[in-house]
DNA sequence: ATGTTTTTATTTGTCTGACATTTAAAAGTC
DNA sequence: GACTTTTAAATGTCAGACAAATAAAAACAT
């Protein structure tokens, strides 16, 4: 584990990269303790604050955890699905909000991926998952529900659909696609009629899952994508002719 | 932007979280300059090193970039697809290597997601994409190719397939699923006959894309998944009866 | 001998103050 | 006006110190 003294990059960046590589290629294994900050400082021939900056970079990526005290130190962290999931949602959300991705592009990606889950989800459906889907559908039928809460329930419904595939890798990969759309959806105003159509499609999908019919669930998702797109188009047309660019909140 | 003095968490973690939230909910916009380190230190009532640790945490997530000099400082960074892509590959790779995910689970997720791209990719196919796919197929036919290079070419082939969907969000979401499998694939030894079967399926898929037949491409992927799984199963059976647990490298 | 308390050593967390380096703008010079 | 020099502001780095947490070791009491 060494750093290049001629490199122009920050020392802390070089050090964190060096340790990161060691973790990735297995030189440092899960729960292994790194040398203390002072030892690292000696090893890399830098000061302790510089080492600390490097370690904080790694901590920000959940690659290490630190513990104070006599037997404390920095330990290689087992990256959990939970941590990765949260990172994925944040990254995807920022990616969409910072890069002028069209609603259509994001929507297409999301539904393409969800349809990929449908057959597995239908095949492995379980009572919990179906109960969640039904509960969210019921919630979505309540007329007093705010648009924002309606969107949140929509996300919960789709998450249940995805998690039903009982494949944690799949759930993780889809986390971003499903949740990052929420801010975009929040820009839409759902009329009672809009909601009714969406709820009907949700029912159709839940029924298909219930019957173990993946193809039918996939068809339902396709219809839902079309519905969502047309709703969004209506909103953006109105916005572009009547008012300044959309502002979230 | 404030922090809780009663919290037990690290000050630098609190500060980075506070700034991160400000970025996510739009209080800080892309390319906006943050206050200088000294000003932030005054604002949060901490020392400059603590502020710096917080900023390094953000830099590690590509949320800010820093610039030295008179008009320098920390700026909110536009998260690029490229950056997000790299993050996604690293995270997915570590997730698989640290969590005893079965080959089958990872494989299932990967091919399910790839099949989701097939129809779009077939519909929007272009000369570049097809040329890449054909070139990788040719490379895979060279007998002197090492197993590792064969796997790398395999990844390149699949990336071309995914990128053919011409949806950057989709490409980003699939980056992890496709590339994180490579270390797992590298544990497999491909006989000449194995390679021939895989190349044949790659041809079948490329032809289907060429013809704009998404369903056929999807079928090809399904066959390839089955082939890959049976290969892997063969390897793991041999390993478990004849030798100690697999060790990469 | 055993259980409890105290001490001690180690490690991370934080602060202060300083200097080096980079960079763009301002001031000076021809 | 064009070029050079100076200056100021910002990040990057360092050194040394103290605070706080924590577990092990030592001391003590029973």
Q: Widest sheet of chain A: strand order? A: 1-2
Distance between the termini of chain A: 48 Å
CATH fold field value of the largest domain in chain A: Four Helix Bundle (Hemerythrin (Met), subunit A)
Mean of pLDDT of chain A: 93
What count of helical segments of chain A does DSSP give? 11
Oligomer: homodimer
Low-confidence runs of chain A (pLDDT<50, min 5 residues)?
Answer: 245-249
Estimate the helix proportion of chain A, in percent. Answer: 55-70%
Q: Biggest β-sheet of chain A, characterized?
A: 2 strands, antiparallel
The domain tally of chain A reads: 2
Strand content of chain A: under 5%
* Name given to the CATH architecture of the largest domain in chain A: Up-down Bundle
Radius of gyration of chain A: 23 Å
Would you state the CATH class of the largest domain in chain A?
Mainly Alpha
From the helix content, strand content and strand pairing of chain A, which structural class follows?
mainly alpha
- Biggest chain pair contact, residues each? A-B, 60 and 61 residues
Shape of chain A: elongated
Could you give the order of the helices and strands of chain A? HHHEEHHHHHHHH
What's the CATH H-level superfamily name of the largest domain in chain A?
GntR ligand-binding domain-like
Number of strands of chain A: 2
Description:
Two copies of one chain form a homodimer. The relative contact order of chain A is 0.10. Chain A has eleven helices and two strands; from the N terminus they run αααββαααααααα. A two-stranded antiparallel ribbon of chain A has the order 1-2. The first copy, chain A, is elongated, with a radius of gyration of 23 Å. By secondary structure, chain A is mainly α. Chain A has two domains: 66 residues, Winged helix-like DNA-binding domain superfamily/Winged helix DNA-binding domain (Arc Repressor Mutant, subunit A, Orthogonal Bundle); 162 residues, Up-down Bundle (Four Helix Bundle (Hemerythrin (Met), subunit A)). The first copy, chain A, binds a DNA duplex (30 and 30 nucleotides) through helix 3.
